[in-house]
Amino acid sequence: MNGDPARVAAKALTHPAAVAPSAFPANWWARAGWIALAAYVVYATSRLDFTWTRFVVGLDQGARFIGRMLPPRIAQPDTLVKGLTESLEIAILASSLGILVSLPVGLFAARNLMPAWVTWPARALIAMCRSFHPVIVAILFVKAVGFGALAGILALSVASVGFIGKLFADAIEEISLKQVEAVRATGAPFLSVVGYGVMPQVFSRFTGFATYQLDSNLRNSTMVGIVGAGGIGGTLFAAFQRFDYDFVCAILLSIIGMIMAGEVLASWVRSVFLERGKVDEE
Amino acid sequence: MNAAATGVREWRRFTAGQRVARFSVYLVLVAAIVASARAVEIIPEFLYDAPEQMQDLFVRMWPIAFYHYPEGVHAALVETLHIASLGTILAVLMALPIGTAAAHNVVPNRVVNYFAKLLLVSSRSVNSLVWALLFVAVFGPGALAGTLAIAFRSIGFVGKLVGEALEEAQTGPIEALAAAGAPWPSVISKGYWPQVEPAFWSILLFRWDINVRESAVLGLVGAGGIGMALDTALNLFQWPRVAMVLVAIFAVVVIAEISVTQIRKRIL
What we know:
By secondary structure, chain A is mostly helical. Helices cover 77% and strands 0% of the residues of chain A. Chain A has a single domain, classed as Orthogonal Bundle (MetI-like fold). Chain A is built from twelve helices and no strands. In chain A, helix 5 runs parallel beside helix 8 and helix 6 (116-131) crosses helix 8 (149-173). The longest helix of chain A has 32 residues, at 77-108. Chain A is globular, with a radius of gyration of 28 Å. By secondary structure, chain B is mainly α. Chain B contains eleven helices and no strands. Chain B has helices spanning 2-6, 16-39, 44-61, 69-102, 110-125, 128-139, 143-167, 172-179, 184-215, 226-235, 239-267. In chain B, helix 5 (110-125) crosses helix 7 (143-167). In chain B, 38% of the residues are buried. At the A-B interface, helix 3, helix 4, helix 5, helix 7 and helix 8 of A face helix 2, helix 3, helix 4, helix 5 and helix 6 of B.
């Protein structure tokens, strides 16, 4: 009876564990992990005071809120246009300033080209710039240079240095050193080594980072206004506080439109600079 | 023409079209920078004054009010971490089905794919601070609004990357399971899941790291966490306390980044 292969197969289908070791053995560590996660969720939810009644009341409130947002109404067209233009200007200037600063900083942070005593300070600077959210940096700059676009520009430049500097340093660390050596062997000075040995290898990736950062700065430049650092964010926050929800809706839609236009433009610029055959590198 | 006649082929790296495209990008870029620099309103006196004001700011912040940590900062800091973690978990719960619906090889229906992608794009286009403003208006100030803001902002990010990971999955195991007559939950859990699992955990850790940073500012619009403590200290011009809060945020962000890097190294 046991020798009948068809019966063994049938038994294996109904009681897999009884016949052979399962193809998918139970992973008790993973199960313990899921239970721990579930316990954490319950604990954290109770600590943050999330209750079902609060949620239901919120949904009610949410329906009324959406009702007041629709239809969107442009209450102050001049303010809207002025805010959007200022956000755009902040994003462009902050990106160019940030890229300008992050080029040397990223180069100094590359461990394959620079000695350790240069890379450590550069890496520390990059880490400092990255660790604070742009809005927090904007608060400090508002105190330092007063309300307005300048604070926003400086804050987003700091954020750009943190982001581009790190990616640029990583990109330089991945280059082939043969070309660098070849240029160096001709007796070229340091700047020529960088210009002809390093830059051509990282340039197309670098344009990718730069367009991404412009995109990200555009998103954040619409936000720094909440703390008074210029751009459309101030208008948005004021409209929220005045409960002008239909104007809020109009501002949000125009911000989303601007960001999407920026994304399309950025992907076009990337396609211009991306060399053929290098697409899979990204 | 001339080069061909003399037998020397002139070598150019880019075609004429590429050169024109590149040149026009540079031209537009420079024009945009110049136009922005001329149009943006910068008050020069404020700029000259900046180093002095910066110095004044640091003098006011010193000494850092460490004594303020136990009563005013610790609870808010823990709340921030809860907001970031719960927000990430909630986002994953919502992003997995949407991300799966966006993957064409799992759900072979163009209409569903585009609808899912539209949801993901709209989640990403709205900044987490704006999500926070919206949820504060709906649920009132507090951590609930912050958690939902983090979650809704993260759906787009997690869903997009999970969808892309699913689309890159090998078809071999899937076809083998389908040929064995496996129902679709088994195809998902034994065919797709093992292939996207490493990518999934890496996306999750990466987003959690971002969310720790973002949840620190949500309090500025009333959505709970350490941002509330920062906002209070700022409004009262208690600069030593502001410095304390900033040091706490810095420490948490650095610890989060280091632990994420370590976990990645060990597990992935």
